[in-house]
Amino acid sequence: MRRFGIVLLALVAGCTSTATPEFINGSYYMTGDPSCTLRAPHNTEKKIMCLDSKHRPTGERRAMTNQELYVYQTNQMIAAQRSAQLDAEIAAQNQALLNHSYPQMQTPQVTPITPPGGNQVRCLSTGFYTNCRY
To answer: Which residues are paired to 48 by β-bridges?
Structure first.
């Protein structure tokens, strides 16, 4: 079951992709998303032509400014910090569960059931019929 989950996660992760900065000719461009899986140089220095996986043009993308690149990097750092914090919280909760002592259930005391007259079986036979009682 665990392998199935890992394979499913890999398939889902492979199907979805987001754009990430790519260094091309001295500038960064957002590429790698479904509408910009392939790129071609454009006539101008600060633009690229994006193509989808079927080699169809999807539009131009301009180079990222220093501020856009800084915002992207800052957002990535914040996401990494949140992920690390969440991992730490989950680890702490797991440790707390391991350290918690759960009460043990006591075996109930019961008295054995004995039929009236002890463990005797009495049978009466009349012809073809036999009737037994405990």
So the answer is: 41, 61
Q: Distance between CA atoms of 24 and 47, rounded to whole angstroms?
A: 10
In angstroms, rounded to a whole number, what is the distance separating the alpha carbons of residues 75 and 84? 14
Residue 7, SS3? helix
| pTM of this structure | 0.56
The token duo for 27 is: 């500038």
Give 36-86 pLDDT, tens digit per residue. Answer: 999 887 776 789 999 999 999 999 999 999 999 999 999 999 999 999 999
Return the half-sphere exposure (C-beta side, CA atoms, 13 A cut-off) of residue 77. Answer: 6
- Concatenating the DSSP letter of every residue in 27-45 gives EEEEE-SGGGSEEEE-SST
Longest dimension (CA), the chain: 115
Contact 40, 51 (CB under 8 A): yes
CA separation for the pair 128, 106 (Å, rounded): 51
Q: Under DSSP, is residue 123 helix (H, G, I), strand (E, B) or coil?
A: strand
- Are 35 and 52 in contact, with CB atoms under 8 Å apart? yes
